[in-house]
Amino acid sequence: MPLADNQQKQQSLEGLSLLMVGVVAISFAAPLFKLSQPVHPLVAAATRLSLAAILWFGVTLWRARGGMIKRSHLYGRQGRVAMLCGLCYAVHFGAWVWSLGLTSVIASATLVTTTPIMLGFVAWLKGRDRPSGRLIKSGLIATMGVILFAFDSQGGEGRLSGDLLALLGALAMVPYLLMTRGLGDSLRLAPFSLIATSVGAITLWVIAAIALPPEQLTFPQGSPLYALIAAALVPQMIGHSALTVSLKRFTPTEVGIATLLEPLGASLLAWIWLKEPQSLSSLIAALITLGAVMNALPKYDRE
């Protein structure tokens, strides 16, 4: 049926476009968080999620008045999943933003995108959304490019701690993607994101209040605040929303592999904004990663 085939192809292209929008948007996160320094990482991460929660509250209220959001979207199964995903957000952003103060943008952005390796292993164990042979090979090649990025970057004191924190941030996204995928077509983005960002923000503020001295708990001002507002608008509202919705069409492993492109965008922005140098080996790593991801995504392999 040519009409059905064309419609399916169109939907696939729309899904891929949405996924790429998400990847481009999240590439702004690492440079923006770097620009928010010297704000403490826990405060920076909590501020970003707080600002996003305020924006999602407005969107949710507007859609609720239009009758597009039901009570069950806030208090039903989706609400419970969103709360758990909010805890994942807290660990992911808290650990990752902290890593940016200890290592380079490219190393941090590279290691935090190792989620697909973990997702592929989980999928292999569970048997659901199990990656195809082509997807596994593409993921391994892309991971090689990511590793080249990490080894190319220059580290200083505390680099190992920063790398481990970035890996913890990657690990926190595994349950987030799996739980979101489990919602399927029942996912309603606005109320889900409102709950997730709110829970993540509250969790981080509580941790910050316990762990930090009072002088570090002040709300950001000036240019750090502007950087965090941009981080809430672009990587959070646009980037994470696009990735979340794309899980309706792609498996968690496919979405994870697509995010391996984030270090490329982050390193380019860091080179422009932060004057972080890039080398020939970085270019080679970028080409390897880009080629592998492009080979994986358009095939839409399913078993």
Mean pLDDT: 81
The strand count comes to 0
Helix and strand element order? HHHHHHHHHHHHHH
- Please tally the helical runs, counting DSSP H or I stretches of 4 or more residues: 14
- Distance from first to last alpha carbon: 21 Å
Structure commentary:
With 303 residues, the chain is an all-alpha fold. It has a domain at 35-127 and 155-262. Helix content is 77%, strand content 0%. It has helices at residues 2-26, 29-35, 41-65, 71-75, 77-100, 105-111, 115-126, 133-152, 159-183, 189-211, 222-246, 252-258, 262-273, 280-296. α5 (77-100) runs antiparallel to α9 (159-183). The relative contact order is 0.22. The model is unreliable at 298-303 (pLDDT under 50).
Task: Describe the structure in brief.
By secondary structure, this protein is mostly helical. It is 77% helix and 0% strand.
Main attributes of the structure:
single chain; 303 residues; mainly alpha; 14 helices; disordered C terminus
